[in-house]
Write a structure and sequence with these properties.
Layout (H helix, E strand, L loop, with lengths): L15 H13 L4 E6 L15 E8 L2 H5 L4 H27 L4 E4 L8 H7 L4 E2 L5 E2 L7 E8 L15 H8 L1 H5 L5 E6 L2 E6 L13 H5 L1 H4 L2 H20 L4 H10 L12 E6 L4 E8 L2 E8 L10 E5 L1 H9 L3 H9 L4 E4 L10 H7 L11
Parallel strand pairs: 9-12
Antiparallel strand pairs: 1-2, 2-6, 3-6, 4-5, 7-8, 9-10, 10-11, 12-13
Bound molecules: iron/sulfur cluster (SF4) (2 copies).
Length: about 375
């Protein structure tokens, strides 16, 4: 459908004002959100090839009428129309780029080349929910995604994803799983707990225009901001409750009982102690030769500069605090009731950690599960 030929000598650099102009045009023709990412083998479907990894990802609204229409021929027609509309918009944008001298290839939203939900997530436009659909702040899961691979080598590629809390919300929700009449969304055990898997061959989303999982999703029903506010509120309450499980008086006592264990550690050492299924952690550090114990949110782990992390469950934390001797600590470690993770590069783990770990019967080494 493209009306503009691919340029024989394409341009490779675009300035900020051109990107802005492109985005303004995209919004003016009905594109909801635009993101940029670099294609990799996880995003590209097996055996497919594209010339440029520089990828523009586009989302477009699916008409609300699809949601209101029961699965069947009419719903399928509406869904097909949404795909056609998205294809037309994508081609128009591709032509816009070609006219300006940039080469393009199109990944039409009907699919076949890339994993669109993952692509949208990689571009930071939203996050994949348990339904397997991309959820964005603007449209929730009611959208189509397409992409343009372009010769622009300096695209403002996204590095972060501020929507990565969505899977945590999905764990509490599961509404799409319950709403699916075809049992296409199934719970599956994995190394990291239970996960929801979409069984493509059971899903009638494309063949019958089924949208029950979209309709049931709180992001569709209430909107992104509402769900985020609810999620933050639930988390704040949970943290408050969980903080009560960390008795700071007992931890101060534990530290004073074990002070000799920490004597070889230099000023500036920091380690964290966390409880599984608890959003808080204990931070132990030495500042001006004073040992300190503080309670922090697990979200702050990255900023806490902790070199080591100890993780145990509630039962073993209770055991440790009831018998706050170094022997008990070492015993729980050797029986693997406490896991230890080196958060820093072992080669840089100075600060007296080697002696500290040896006192506990440990040495630096081992592997991480990732
Ligand atoms: S589109 Fe329909 S069949 Fe497919 S996962 Fe959603 S609810 Fe199930
Ligand atoms: S319905 Fe619930 S579990 Fe499913 S994608 Fe939406 S928020 Fe996640």
């Amino acid at each position: 459908m493209s009306r503009v030929e691919r340029p024989s000598k394409p341009k490779f650099i675009a300035d900020e004002s051109f990107i802005k102009e492109f985005e303004n045009y995209a919004h003016s023709i009905g594109i909801s959100s635009i993101g940029y990412t670099l294609l990799n083998s996880d995003l590209l479907l097996k055996d497919k090839f594209v010339q440029y990894p520089f990828t523009i990802v586009l989302t477009m609204e699916m008409d609300n009428a699809i949601i209101k229409t029961a699965p069947g021929d009419d719903a399928k027609d509406l869904n097909d129309t949404a795909y056609v509309k998205a294809s037309i918009l994508t081609t128009k944008l591709s032509d816009f780029l070609r006219k300006e001298g940039y080469d393009t290839e199109i990944a039409q939203p009907m699919g076949g080349v890339v994993n669109f939900s993952l692509l949208g997530q990689s571009a930071g436009l939203g996050h994949i929910g348990d339904s397997g659909l991309l959820i964005t702040p603007e449209l929730g899961p009611r959208l189509k995604v397409s992409a343009i691979f372009v010769s622009i080598a300096n695209l403002p590629v996204n590095e972060e994803n501020e929507h990565d809390w969505i899977p945590e919300y999905c764990e509490m929700c599961n509404k799409c799983v319950k709403a699916c009449p075809e049992k296409a969304l199934i719970e599956k055990e994995s190394c990291c707990g239970n996960e929801i898997e979409l069984i493509q061959k059971k899903c009638v989303g494309c063949s019958l225009g089924c949208t029950y999982c979209i309709e049931a999703c709180p992001f569709e029903e209430k909107g992104y901001s509402h769900v985020k506010a609810k999620f933050d509120k639930i988390n704040a309450k949970l943290r408050e409750k969980q903080a009560k499980n960390f008795d700071m008086g007992l931890w101060n006592h534990w530290l004073s009982e074990n002070s000799k264990l920490f004597t070889d550690l230099d000023d500036g050492f920091t380690m964290a102690i966390a409880m599984t299924d608890n959003e808080n952690m204990i931070i132990l550090n030495k500042v001006d030769n004073e040992l300190n114990v503080n309670l922090k949110s697990i979200d702050e782990l990255e900023n806490s500069n902790a070199d080591l992390l100890f993780v145990m469950d509630e039962k073993h934390m209770d055991e440790l605090l009831k018998d706050p001797t170094t022997t008990k600590f070492a015993e729980l470690l050797s029986s693997k009731k406490i896991d230890v993770y080196g958060l820093s590069d072992p080669m840089k783990l100075g600060k007296g950690y080697v002696t500290f770990l040896n006192k506990l019967g440990l040495s630096i080494g081992g592997e991480c599960c990732g």
